[in-house]
Specification:
Blueprint (H helix, E strand, L loop, with lengths): L1 E9 L4 H12 L2 E10 L2 E9 L7 H15 L2 E6 H7 L3
Helix pairs in contact: 1-2
């Protein structure tokens, strides 16, 4: 099972390190990552394999959002199928 993680906010040091460390601690594996800085803003999208995570996706998604608050970013995690459905026309 895979999920899409999006991270946005004002750029600062350590964003990728903090988010990837959190995901690793939970047992997720980052399969793909893309990030960019647009002026003073940071944007990142990750595809992560969450098959090894023991917790419910909704719990991890809430924890991602809380991490986002702690580091001053917006972090969203969605099941890949939901992300795809929301972005299909």
């Amino acid at each position: 099972m895979r999920a899409v993680v999006t991270v946005t906010g004002k750029d600062k040091k350590g964003i990728i390190a903090k988010v990837s460390a959190f995901l690793s601690e939970k047992g997720a594996n980052i399969e793909d990552i893309s990030q960019t800085v647009l002026g003073e803003y940071f944007a990142m999208i990750m595809i992560v394999d969450i098959s090894a995570i023991q917790e419910e996706l909704s719990t991890i998604a809430k924890e991602c959002a809380e991490l986002g608050k702690q580091i001053g970013m917006s972090i969203y995690m969605q099941h890949e199928d939901i992300f795809n459905a929301m972005h299909s026309v």
